[in-house]
Amino acid sequence: MRERTTARVDRIETFLVAPRWILVRVTTDDGAHGWGEAIVPKRVRAVVGAVEDMAENLLGTPAGHISDMTWRMRNGAFFRGGPILATAAAAIEQALWDLAGHRLAAPVHDLFGGPVRTSVRAYAWVGGDRPRDVVAHVQARQGQGFDMVKMNATEELDLIDRPAHVDAVVERVAAIRDAVGTEIDVALDFHGRVHRAMARTLLRELDGYRLAWIEEPLPPGHEDAYGQVFSNDRSTPIATGERLTSRWNVRRVLEERVVDVLQPDVSLTGIAELVAIARQAEAYDVAVAPHCPNGPVSLAASLQVASASVNVPVLEQSVGLHYHEGYAGLPRGELFDYLSDPGPLRTDDGRFAVPGGAGLGVEVDAEAVAASPPWSLHDPQWRLEDGRNAEW
């Protein structure tokens, strides 16, 4: 019988690495460590502070008591919820699962029932925040082996906007279809920046292009209007969920049957909660495509969940994402810069292999983390022509 470990949480540290990633390391009193990753980079000091606050409550706890610590981080205080607390808790929880996997010499997916597949399909981003040169980008991704891409649909868009802006969205999609036909699946991200009237117009105009999905079709907080805005005769699937943090957030959109693809982010939900959400969605015959335009540890955690979940058809990843290229004055950085061996996160013909290594399946290069340049990221300040703030 394997001896139960008595190692306890001794130290929880946060590291900011280029271009905009927040890594968290949990170390136990016997010197072992695991890694996690937080997000919400535009509120990075708040995230770091939340990790530090949670750490004070966890030091000395047996490292294997993951469920207990997760409950305490998410529910132990009077005030709970929101993305800052969620991402801090998720990053620490990922690191605890990484530790547990290494102690048991098993990948994390084995701790959730083992793999249900041999590979996981991946998709890649094209076009940037303000989509440009999309055909060339799609063809480049096709050359890298991907058969699915995602792009932002539009730039700033007013509540009621001009037909020319609608035409520009449709023309970009049409140009991709003209260039590559249906060899490439295309998902279109409205990014929560499209208001109700324009969303209805765009969905009607785009419905014949056989898109993989339209993502976040309305601004945050309007998920209850999906059923009113998008009629049952549409054919384009609707995706949302990257800003939802728990089963309780997800329950409503599932019960109202207004979403076809759920997109929770493991750096908001944590690993165990993402597994639970995937199981919950399976009962409603809803796909889960984890949101992950993030760094290497977040991707590794997402891949562990995808490996053990039958209703994950595709996984987002950020290789070559425009944010990595010095976006908004950030330092450059790429997904593999902080891994001792990037092999487990590389795709072959647009697919990830199910990871076989212990824990999250990747080894973070602590020296590269320590050498990363500092960064800070400000709000984008998008505005309409008349000076009003626009959804980003």
From TrEMBL:
<dbReference type="InterPro" id="IPR029017">
    <property type="entry name" value="Enolase-like_N"/>
</dbReference>
<dbReference type="Pfam" id="PF02746">
    <property type="entry name" value="MR_MLE_N"/>
</dbReference>
<dbReference type="InterPro" id="IPR013341">
    <property type="entry name" value="Mandelate_racemase_N_dom"/>
</dbReference>
<dbReference type="InterPro" id="IPR029065">
    <property type="entry name" value="Enolase_C-like"/>
</dbReference>
<dbReference type="Pfam" id="PF13378">
    <property type="entry name" value="MR_MLE_C"/>
</dbReference>
<dbReference type="InterPro" id="IPR013342">
    <property type="entry name" value="Mandelate_racemase_C"/>
</dbReference>
<feature type="domain" description="Mandelate racemase/muconate lactonizing enzyme C-terminal">
    <location>
        <begin position="131"/>
        <end position="239"/>
    </location>
</feature>
<keyword id="KW-0456">Lyase</keyword>
<dbReference type="InterPro" id="IPR034593">
    <property type="entry name" value="DgoD-like"/>
</dbReference>
<dbReference type="GO" id="GO:0008869">
    <property type="term" value="F:galactonate dehydratase activity"/>
</dbReference>
<dbReference type="InterPro" id="IPR018110">
    <property type="entry name" value="Mandel_Rmase/mucon_lact_enz_CS"/>
</dbReference>
<dbReference type="InterPro" id="IPR036849">
    <property type="entry name" value="Enolase-like_C_sf"/>
</dbReference>
<protein>
    <submittedName>
        <fullName>Galactonate dehydratase</fullName>
        <ecNumber>4.2.1.6</ecNumber>
    </submittedName>
</protein>
